[in-house]
Amino acid sequence: MISIIIVYLALLFLIAFWAEKNSKSKWVNNPYIYVLSLAVYCSAWTYYGSVGIASQSGISFLTIYLGPVISLPLWILVMRKIIRISKQHKISSIADFISLRYGNNRFLGALVTVICVFAIVPYISLQLKAISETFEIITDETSYVSTSILDDSTFYIAVLLAIFVAFFGTQATDASQRRKGIMTTVAVESILKLAFFLIAGVYVTFFLFDGTSDIYQKASQLDNFKQITSFNGVESGFNWMFTILLSFFAIFLLPRQFHVAVVENDRERYLKKAIWMFPLYLLLFNVFVIFIAWGGNLSFDGTVNQDYYILLLPLQNNNLVLAMLVFLGGFSAVISMVVVSTLALSTMVSNNLIIPYGFLDKFIQGNPQKNTNYIKNIRRISIFSLIIVAYFFYVNFSYELSLYSIGLISFAIIAQLAPSFFIGLFWNRGSAKAAKTGMIVGVLVVVYTLILPFVVNVLRENNSFIEQGVFGIELLKPYAILGVDFLSPEAHSFFWSMFLNTMSFLTISLLSKGNYRERNYAEMFINSSNYANLQDSAFVWKGEAYVSDIRNMLNRFLGEKRTERALHLFNIKYGISKEEEMADARLINFSEKLLTGSIGSASARILIASVAKEEPVSLLEVLKILEESKETIAINKALKEKSEELTRLAEQLRAANTELLEQDRIKDEFLDTIAHELKTPITSIKAASEILTDGDDMPLELKTKFLDNIVSDSDRLARLIHNILDLEKLSSGRDQLEIKTNQIDKTIDKAINGISQIANNKKVAIIHQNGKELFANYDEDRMLQVLTNLLSNALKFSEPEIGTITVLAHQKKEIVEVVVEDNGKGIPAEDINYIFDKFYQSKHQNIKKPMGSGLGLAISKKIIENHKGKIWVDKKYKKGARFLFTIPK
Amino acid sequence: MKKILIVDDEPNIVMSLEYTFKKKNFEVYIARDGGEALQIAEDKIPDIVLLDIMMPNVDGYETLKQIKNNKNLKNTKIVFLSAKNKAADIEKGLEMGADKYLTKPFSVKKLVSEINELLS
Prior knowledge:
The complex is a heterodimer. Chain A is mainly α. Chain A contains 33 helices and nine strands. The longest helix of chain A is centred in the C-terminal third of the chain and has 76 residues, at 619-694. The model of chain A is unreliable at 530-535 and 843-851 (pLDDT under 50). By secondary structure, chain B is α/β, with parallel strands linked by helices. Chain B has five helices and five strands. In chain B, strands 2-1-3-4-5 form a five-stranded parallel beta sheet, with helices on both faces. In chain B, helix 4 (87-95) links the parallel strand 4 and strand 5. At the A-B interface, helix 29 and helix 30 of A face helix 1 of B.
């Protein structure tokens, strides 16, 4: 018998070896290995315990499988998120996961670890108990807990398992790396345990009995048949619900499940296979449970442990080979559970408990080889300690316990991680303080309502505590807190612990905001969909750190080669120069992640903090950063609008500036021109005066000529000054128009009269085409000024004898239009756009400025504009010049 | 007899200058703008040109340039006679090669003495 066990174990060692060696083989890397390794869920509890439950309380054994089955469709959403986050941060256990979510909180990681150890060690010890008990059944020994450890075969099996885990579980220091050897053996064992269980089921159902209906008929004649095949009212329904919920949580939170489902997950797509194959596996496992239970009930009289019907039935019928196979199936279930659980727990204990609370100083001084050995040794010692503690627990305590109830207690404790875990995934307010409080409260409630009564019961053999509550207070009865007495102890405990845990978590989260690290990681966990953007750069970090210090720190754990490679990749990814001396937030975050796999996230944070001078980031800053990331889009949009507005304003300013410069230039030019225009007559007057002063011998005729010049230049000067002042007055708006209703034709006649003398002298005809009586509102003096200016311009450019000037006024809708045209040589094309400008005088003028000041048309334009009219030249008119202006009626 | 070319578009000013320099025994020529001035200068090779700047068509600056480019006129002195009296204007005129720059309104006596000095 022992030799068979040893051969079997050797086989497992070989498989693990082979898988580690051929870690690239597709036999090792496929979704089936992943799905089968999930079946580590089916421990001895499933293998033996389910039958026990089924034989006593019917189909309620199913609840423990319904939870996982219900949860699996959710995996695509939830598990994928968990896996993504874990891969990103090299998370190696559930303790790491939760502590990272709440800002790398060291205490939280340790708390989760303690809770898990607390829950799982008794569970492991039960597995050992199963081995021991089945071993003894099959070998028919009676003294199965011997006086000395040394002749207890279970002890040796436990040690062998510890060696197995220690050897294959600590191949790499980075605990987030996958252990292909162990996983392959777990998968193989999953096949074996299912196969052997099914064989036994078929054997019991079809060989010992005559098929399913035969068992059913026979079993239905038993006394308790009705009780074990139906629901017992509402209470039972509640119990069902709670057990389902419990197992629902367990499939996520049990350290071994987290390990196989998350840490050992190779590809996200494996999940797609898992969501239908894993339920199928569980279904197959449960097909024969009820029949084996009935068969057992029929074959035994209740003096044997119902848990082991599956083993006892073949033995009773002397089928030793089958019994052996059944034993090996159960042994497989135990081994895989123990191996994966201790592996997961040892990582947690080393990375979240031992290293962060004691060994960090040592690591800071050590060299890489030493550190690696240290870490591995801590893990190996953890593995051995866990198994040995479990063994002693089994020796001293588990005598009384059934597989099922210990399993449930274990689940109920593990479930205390659920609020922080699940709510933390989807709610960014959850804080570390709240998580700690919730867990502690929850665990205390479980202890009080489940474990304490149990222990008291075992030790004192009296039920007063359970029946009267602590200090005899009825409301505190451990199985019926506040009078809730219709639930099974487990469901009751679960209800109260979860309720108080969740309430504390929510309340404290709402009351106090976490520090910046927590809020930062919360944001990362919750927004894992746009994870790529968040990851390294999302980390809020302010402070000073040298790349060389961080490099040294990494060297100690990863070795020079891996460190160089990692930093090289980092620099390439973010385009950072190799010579960069100062580390930024991304490097800090990246290095923490690198170390997390080896020593856990909390330790990694502490280590990095030891070489980086971190400045506290005020909550205000963090809030700003976090809220900014949310509002970035909105702000960007606002900024864009602002910037567009600014561009527009700048454009306007530029235009205004150009306009001002232009006006400035025009003003300068205007002043220059005025100066020039004023100086010309003055020069003439001065020269003539000087000549006359010295000119005693000058003929009288010439004297008169010079004197005439002086007079005409004086006139010119006076006129010029008058015009300048007039234009200035019109432009500044200081000119008050005296608007009255006048008849336009009469005004035209007055203007013509004013210059008729000159026209007659030049023999130029002025024709006024008198139309209807047209009235309009205008300042008549100003209008005369305009008309006179236009007429004298026309006269100036008209040829004597043949020149004709035509004036006419007519009505057009609401305006009066006046036309002044001549048959002169017209306005040259290059001048036409400038004639209304001040001092513009055509270069083609032959006659030398006899009267013009250069301001006539500019003044006319101002006058018409002040009347809200328009003045322009008809550019198409080719027979001479044709001026038009309009004024409103 | 020295030849003087007076270039200005203001007839009254021209008249005063013409009278003055005739009295001083100059051979006086008159032009009303730059174009006319260049023709006459080419033809008569004056000893001195009195040049207004702000004139229609070809202005004083352009006329100066043309005269300077003409080898036949290399001995011809040029005096700007302009209302533009800013320092920058005067500098520009002298830089372009004018021998003298007098601002309007000018003193006839001073003008005559400056020109005598230039020609001596």
